[in-house]
Every structure is written in structure tokens, then in C-alpha cells.
Batch of 3 targets.
Target 1
Amino acid sequence: MTAGLLGSTQPLAECHDLALVDLDGVAYHGHLPIEHASDSLAGARQRGLRLLFVTNNASREPEDVAAQLSGLDIPTTPDEVMTAAQACAALLRTRLEPGASVLVVGGRGLVTAVEQAGFRLASGADDAPDAVAQGFAPELGWSDLAEAAYAVAGGAWYVASNRDLSLPTARGFAPGNGALVGAVVAATGVEPDSAGKPAPTMYRLAVDRVGAQRPLVIGDRLDTDLAGARAGGYPGLHVLTGVSGARDAVLAEPGLRPHYVGADLRSLLEPHPEPEQAGDGWWRCGARAARVVDGVLEVDRQGPQGIDVVRAACSAAWTAADAGEAVAASGVPQLTA
């Protein structure tokens, strides 16, 4: 699949049969709705697009996630949710038989997923577990991480639900599961296998669950959602309502680049014009254009503001970077979608 942006003359909701939708930053912000999310997802469903919400959160049950979404006017059933806990349990099944012993270091969601996968729960490292499954939970403490380290050092297979270094909260960004995993890695020198994004494990499980043929990944974070799309070979839509902004997309390395860029989830219901390179060195998308000159991104200020300027800028910057021309972050202006 191309490392550049793709184009679509039809709305994306009509080109794909399944949308793998991230939660925080895409469907909602914490406990608050995101403007246009509910109406856009409803419109996508009306066009025949199935939705499956995919989250790196391993502490919550699918029922809780579905209830939150439904409370934000996005009607969702538990079977339309795929958590990192479920992916972690599925990853354990690739090497362990049902009945194997697993030390769970995480929240209730991970405990439930591991139990439902047929594993026995170990109470600590002294039980000599076959594996350690670690996921985020706000109540985790030093003693929990120490038990994980003792078990891993003793030979237990180490599996992490995800390796997100940070997670968004109402007060800002706090340490995520990746930060806590880092403590165990520092103590043992053992790197875990990861089930969550950016590993494509969850996406593949979700696609297999519904038998989709034309899936689309939708996310707000380049380093998890869209990197996972690239790793799994799935087209990815980057919406600018969460962590990664327009400048982040412009400066993205090949493995983090989205295939489509939209201001918000309304972009599911719209065509996506493909940027084209003109003979004068400018990349044009709709009425907007951009080019890179001596490592500096130049944007044609003529024409209306909108997402097309971001698309043109991505194409110009990515082409220059792939040709060996350094595009300086200081040379990329703020872009308004």
C-alpha cells in the first residue's frame, strides 16, 4: 500500500464494510462528546458501514465501554467493542493451552478476558505462572509490578495489553501502561510481546470477528492507531480531534502516516480528493496547494481554509522527506483544518 495519501471519489463509509474506531479523541473526549461524532457515526451506519470500537484500554469491560458510548448517543452493544484485554487474552492463546496459569497485573477487564479465555489465575510469582499479562489499572502499585518482575525473571512469558506511555485524563496526560511496563522491563531486561496498538493484533482479531473484507481504521494518534493500521496493511483515517494534530501528520515518518486525513468524523461521509503534483513543484488538493523549498513547507494562502491544505501539505512534505530532503519542524507552519 502506498506511503502517501489515498483518494476516494465516494464517501469512505460507502467504500468500506467495517470501521475500526478508536475511542478517546475520536468518539469522545473522556466523558464528553466530540462534536459531530454521534451524527457522523449514525450516518455511516445508515450507509451500511459496520462499526467496531477498538481501544487500548485493558481495564474496562466491553459492557462498560458500550454503555458509555450509548450514553453519548452512539448506540453500541458489547460485541461491537474490542479491548486490549481481549486481544491480550487472544495472544496468550497462541502459545498457551486452556488451563495454563497466568498472573494478571491489571484491572477487572483484563482479569475477565483472561478467565474467559480459559486460563487459571495465579495469585503471585510463587505460583510459577506460565505467563504474566499486564494491563493498566489506576490502582496498580509497586507490589504488583514487583510480582510481575519476579515471575518474568523466573521464566514466565511476558505479555502486555499495550505499551502506551501516556493516557489522557481530565487533568492532562498521565503515565500509561507502557510507563508501568517500563518498570518491569527495567527490572528484568525482558521486553514483552504486546497485544495492543501499534501492534496490529487487535485489528486482525476485529476483522476476523466480523469477516470484513474492506476494513478502515479510524484514529487520532499516529503512534498507535495509524501506526497499527500501517503495520497491519489496513487503510487508516486520521481525524484531527485528539492527540496528533495536522503538523504531526505533515512531519510523520512513513510507518506512522495515515492514508486519509479528516478534520473530524464527518470525513467518513465525504469524498477524499487525492492530492496531485503539478509541474511547478506544488502539490494541489482542491483549492489549496503546498510545496517544500529548502526544507521549509510553503502553503499557498489563496483559497479557503480547510482540510485540503493539510492534505496538500502532507503530500508535499512526505514526498520531500522520502526523496532525502530534511523537512524541519520549525519550517512547518500551523495549519487550520
Target 2
Amino acid sequence: MVYIALAILFSVAVSVLLKFARRAGIDIVQAVATNYVVASLLAWQLLGATPQAALAAKATWLPLVALGILLPAIFVVLARSVRTAGIVRTDVAQRLSLFVSLFAAFVFLGDVLTGQKALGIGIALVAVLCVLWRKEHGKAEGGAWWAPLLVFAGFGAIDICFKLVAKAGASFAAGLLGAFLIALVLCWVVAIVRAVAGKAPLTARSIGFGVLLGACNFANILFYVRGHQALPHDPSLVFASMNVGVVVLGSLVGALGFREKLSAVNWVGVVLAIAAVAIMTFM
């Protein structure tokens, strides 16, 4: 369980870093671009990943390109969500995104919808609505709800793409590196164009921040994979521990460390999120 604890810590650490990014004067595009350089190198060195296996099957091309676009795009949205909606809402939205892929599995991939799965999806949707609810002068405040909602949908779409890559026969490591490399190229094209246009000159601060972001981002993935390898017969335990752990730790860090204001409805959403993960675990 040490691996899972480390995965939880690094997952929340990514959110904390993104929380500090704006006040530290970080250009998020440059940071995300550098993040994928670091993540690609670490995937190659530590997971032994090569992109050839993912690129060999033509069926992987479309989901890989989609991943190459979605991964950096959702990272930018994640940064916006952490800044405007807070760590608690963002982490809950990210963790409940698994229910988007679960829904897609029985709609598009031939999975069977059971009563328990339907209950889990229903509770997850209610949890998202509760967590995103903000009230100001008696009306729901819409200024900060769209970013975590995009996080919820975006990470769900990413999970679906990884499932399609795996279904086509590519290993997780190969698909991961392939997606990282596509994201790397696209991000650096955007970063260089912005720098040449004078909108955001390349800075050592943003690139250095990206190195740290990439290390934490990859460590989260690595330790989660190691957790599954250490407990090969208990995937549900790894799954539940990771998702509930991130929701709980993210809530504590956001509420206590950054004094994010949460209403009773928001806390009900956090509890429902944990319940939804529990139902998903014991399907």
C-alpha cells in the first residue's frame, strides 16, 4: 500500500503545483510542454516503453492522436479549474470521471449495464452536481463550475481513448509514451509560436516548473502502476484506495491548507463521491 500512498500524494501534489502556478508567474503552456518531455523520458527509462507497439496497429492511431490533443488540453483546463474552483472540486471531478468511461463502456463497447453500475453512475452524477454547487446571494454561481465540469468530461474521454488503445492490442506503457510524444510535439509547437509572436517568451522559470510538474505527474502514474503490480490479485483494492485517497486528501488540502470555502452541499458531494467509488469497486 506504500505505492498507493505515494501515488495519492503525487496526484494531489500536481493539483497543489497548479494552484501556485499563476501566482508564481508560470506560463502554463510552457510548463505543460516541458512536463511531457520529462514524462516521456521517464516512461522510456522506468517503464521500458517504446511507441512502436502502439503505432504498429492502425486501430490505435485515432485514439492516440485524440490522446495527444486531449492530454495537454485537459492539463490547461485542470490548471484553470484548480485556480478558479479549487483543489477539492477539481480532484473530485477528476476522480469521478471514471464513470464517464463506465457509461461509454456499455453504450459503445458492448458492456452490460447492471443495476449496481447504474446506481454508481447515478450517485457519481449527483456527487458532481453537489460538489460543483456554489451559492451567492441565493443563486447558483456559474463562474467557476465549467472548468471542473470539463475536467470531469475530459478525463473520462481520456480513459475511453486509453481503453481503445488497449483494445487494439497496444500495452499501457506503449500507448502512454505514444500519447506523451504527440502531446509533446503539439505543446512545443504552440509554445514556440506564442514565443515568436511575443505573447509569452520562453522563461527558465516556466520550464523549470514544468520539470517539477512532469516528475510529479509521472510519479503519480508510476506508483499507481507499481501498486497494481504489487497487488495483482486485488485490483479493486488498488482502485478504491487510489480514488478515495485522492478525494479525501484533496479535500483536506483544499479545505485546510488553502481555506477553500465549501458548503454543506459540497461536503455531501464529497461523501457521495466516496460512496460512488465504493459501489464501483464491489461490482
Target 3
Amino acid sequence: MTGGSGRVALVTGASSGIGAASARLLAARGMRVVVNYLRGNTAAEEVVADIEAAGGQAMAVQADVREAAAIESMVQQVQAAWGHIDVLVHNALIPYAIKSFQDMTWEELGGKLNDEMYAAFAVTKAVLPAMTEQGWGRIIYMGTGLSRRPRENMIALGTSKAALEQFARYLAQELGPRGITVNVVAPGPVEGTRIANEFDDDHKRRQVAATPMGRLARPADVAQAVAFYASEDNAFMTGTTAAVIGGMAMY
């Protein structure tokens, strides 16, 4: 795969899990990486240190992606150091309730929908002008297999990510003529993430048994799909969703 040619990638929610794995891989491919975080300052700095130890370039920037002013400040900080952002990997996980529809309030469901879509809207708005100006950009949103395959008590996450996936398709249609691709990476259960840790060992064994590849995804598996969508190699795929689920479902 071609290198990053010094392009700048912003990875939201990059202090751990899929975000950290994506940040490390993009840096290894030659991109300068902005490791965004909300509260995990120490963890984010560790990701930066790992990248720098491997010969890459990275910076940690705190910002709540649910707040427009925080996003604007982050983008300005990146522009001052490295210029504009070429690649957006919007991975930050917005908190959500894990419960049945029967037990859920509108504040829980509607709040998750609002926060999910506002964060994607605001962070995309912030990076789009520079991408448009140069006629090149890569936007990758983190989705979930739950958008298409419902699972007990995951209605808030699955519904909000389904909205995000359709939002990405509309953007892909609009931004294609500007040389900007927009895609979604949709993992199934991923080891070591908050979602995976909500379920007991028996549940995890059933998930593995239902997966032809014989294991759950690892953050590095998801990062590989992110890195392809972010690369120069991806010149013609837009409006697509990569299901990183080991064959648990096949579309």
C-alpha cells in the first residue's frame, strides 16, 4: 500500500481500542496523526510516544467532539502545527444506554441520536473546507454491525449508527465531485472494547461460534480497513460500508 506522503490524519477517540490501533497504523503508513481524546490524557500520550518511538509523527489534542467550539480549537491547533487535515477518522464513541426499548426513555434514545449525529456533523464541517480547497480528502466513520443486525438491549447504539451510515452515503454523493471519499467501517464484536465487556463469557463463546473465522475481531483488524479507506489507494470506493465481522453476517 502506498505511504501517507506526510498527509495529516485526525483520529477522534484515539486514546484506546480501535482509535489507538488506527492512529498507530496510519502513522506507520507515513501520515502525521492527531490523537484526539476526551479524558484519557495519559493513554493518548502513550499512543503518541509509541508512534514517535517507531519513527512517526503524532500529537495528542483534547477535545469533546460534541462541542463545536472544542472542535474548532482542535482544528486550529492542528493547522498551526501541520497545516490542514487531509483524513478524518471519526471513531469517538458517544455514551449510550444499554437497555431494552421497554425500559428506555426518549432522553436516552433521542439524546444518543442527537449526540451521535451532531458530533459527526460538527467534526466533518470543521475539516471539509480544506479538503474541498485541495480537491482531496478521506472521511471514515466508525459504524457497527448492530446497524443491520439488531441485538438485545443495543437499540440506542444500533439506531444512531444506522443514521450515521446513511448520513455518510449522502455525503459521499455530494462530496465525490470534490475528490473526497466518505466510507464507514462497521465492526462486529471487538475484543477489549466497552461493548464486548458488557457481555459474559458464555455470550462471547456464542459469538465466536457464530463467526466462521473462529474468533472476535481485534482492534488491529478494524484499523486495517480504516487504513485502506484513508489511503491514496482508495481512489474509487465511496459510500460503502466495510463489515469487519469475520463472516458473522454476510451481505
